[in-house]
Amino acid sequence: MTRQEILTELKKVIAPYTTNKEMLANINEDTDLIRDLKINSANLVDIIIDAEAQYNIEIDYDVADKMMNVGTCIDVISERLK
Amino acid sequence: MISTGNDIISLNAINVARTKQPRFYSKILSGNERSLYDEPQFTAIPFEIFVWLLWSIKESAYKFLKRIDQKLIFTPVKFEVTQLEIPAGFSIINFGQHETEGIDFADGSALKGTIAIGTYKLYSRSLIYKQLILSVVDDNKNFDTTCWGIKSISSTAPDTQSAAVRGFLLNRLQNALGFKDITINKNPDGIPVLLQASKDTGIPVSLSHHDCVIAYCFKLANQD
To answer: Cβ distance A2 to A77 under 8 Å?
Structure first.
């Protein structure tokens, strides 16, 4: 998958956890999950679990702790897809 | 260290079935913490509440340390709750009020915890109600200058929650403690800073919101 394809799928994973739909529609690799998308930190594990299911991968929290913005999320997912 | 950290969890907003799944809680709890739950004292606490209790302690510890180490990354399983003490006769009761505020946790209803993060050792106090969990963390076992507040609000919109928790904290500081001309800003690391006449007061504050509940804490001074 290309980074753009991962980003498109990632939007679907994130969508249930943000009320900032306008920002979600315009996310880029610098978008911060908590600061920009107003995602509550209590939902970060949900996003990891949903991403695991979406991409059929496993994400350890050792790696997941880097998933604070869209770009690093794509880095982690792309690495796991190799 | 002059810092503080808190976290609030709305138990109405958690996914109970998902929380009980190993693939979920294994991203929050260490092996030792899963063993901790086997202690007889925890029969009064459902497993899903135990998981979110530990999450709130860890998140509070992260907020406490983030003020000191801006490069710190939150890895829940590496923030290990090594001890957790439940008060005698503990039971989970209704929040039953619109808001509550206090200093210290002297009425004996709080759970007392110890958290290890690398070489750091921190202490926690947690309140559990049927609707919510509040945790506050310090590097001192003594919480008698730690002020805290919990409030239910009607909106779940993040911006409204954020404004509400700031207003809740400022009211306490102005009305109960006599502070004037105070505001709360966030520094570039996202840490809240209490300003008086636009100057940093040096008083550490922590803010939290989740679903329809908000909470603050601040520490006036170290006693030891």
So the answer is: no
Helix A3-14, helix A70-81: angle, nearest 10? 110
Binary contact (B158, A38; C-beta < 8 A) = yes
Tell me whether B33 touches chain A (CB under 8 Å): no
Q: Give contacts of B75 with chain A, Cβ < 8 Å.
A: 61-62, 65
pLDDT digits (tens, 9 = 90+) for B24-69: 999 999 999 999 999 999 999 999 999 999 999 999 999 999 999 9
- Domains of chain A by residue range: 3-81
Q: Determine contact: B27 vs chain A, CB below 8 A.
A: yes
| Nearest to B80, CA basis, from B138, B124, B33 | B33
ipTM: 0.84
A 11-40 → B contacts, CB under 8 A: 19-20, 34-35, 38, 40
- Checking if the pLDDT of B11 tops 90, the result is yes
Report domain A3-81's class: mainly alpha
| Residue in B122, B126, B84 with CA at minimum distance from that of residue B217 | B126
- pTM of the entire structure? 0.93
